[in-house]
């Protein structure tokens, strides 16, 4: 995969990991195990466009729909898709939630360090408003059967509220250092209640995989 140069995004550790094929290595292995031809993939937390490009170029999926809160990453993700000939990907500058609205997103000089949270010691950090879309309305419109999610701890609140019944598989990077064992249990219960089971072959460390068809 090709990732165009960008002085504020592709630098330091990110550049090294991409060069050595170690970037998002656990998520990559999980995706290659569970994503299949014809799948409709929903991605929450698009980052630099790595996972959406991966599934679109390594598997003959129907489409991938990515949602990213950081408005400054959207143009770069689109250049990554273009550089890799991806024509079945859609990226939206928004997050999903239980109801429509807006939320503050805090932008930092290191773009990949921007987030929805104010960090300890920060005073009035620069913020921009980001749309919140109704999660279940989006799910009904897109009808994904695979979910990929890396939303920096927000998964503990979002996943239990989502209608997961149409999914065949899901890949999540969890953040136990922030959500604790209670948050992890909420996530596992939500997927089990929706008929998905923990898939050990696709799971490593904080990256967990669920599927209906072993």
From TrEMBL:
Gene3D superfamilies: Vaccinia Virus protein VP39 (3.40.50.150)
Domain TRM5/TYW2-like methyltransferase span(s) in chain numbering: 25-88
InterPro entries: FkbM_mtfrase, SAM-dependent_MTases_sf, TRM5-TYW2-like_MTfase
Keywords: Methyltransferase, S-adenosyl-L-methionine, Transferase
GO biological process: methylation
Keyword S-adenosyl-L-methionine set for record: yes
GO molecular function: methyltransferase activity
Keyword flag Cell membrane: no
Name of the molecule in the record: FkbM family methyltransferase
Native organism: Sulfitobacter alexandrii
């Amino acid at each position: 995969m090709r990732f165009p140069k960008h002085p504020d995004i592709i630098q330091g550790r990110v550049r090294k990991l991409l060069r050595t094929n170690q970037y998002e290595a656990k998520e990559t292995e999980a995706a290659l195990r569970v994503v299949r031809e014809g799948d409709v993939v929903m991605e929450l937390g698009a980052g630099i466009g790595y996972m959406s490009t991966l599934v679109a170029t390594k598997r003959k999926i129907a489409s991938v729909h990515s949602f990213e809160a950081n408005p400054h990453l959207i143009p770069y993700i689109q250049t990554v898709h273009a550089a890799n000939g991806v024509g079945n990907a859609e990226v939206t500058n928004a997050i999903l939630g239980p109801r429509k609205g807006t939320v503050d997103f805090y932008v930092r000089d290191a773009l990949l360090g921007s987030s929805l949270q104010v960090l300890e010691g920060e005073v009035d950090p620069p913020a921009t408003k980001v749309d919140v879309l109704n999660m279940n309305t989006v799910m009904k419109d897109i009808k994904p059967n695979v979910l990929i999610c890396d939303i920096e701890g927000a998964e503990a609140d979002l996943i239990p509220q989502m209608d997961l019944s149409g999914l065949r598989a899901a890949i999540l990077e969890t953040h136990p250092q922030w959500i604790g064992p209670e948050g992890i249990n909420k996530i596992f219960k939500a997927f089990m209640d929706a008929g998905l089971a923990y898939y050990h072959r696709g799971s490593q460390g904080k990256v967990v995989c669920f599927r209906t068809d072993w």
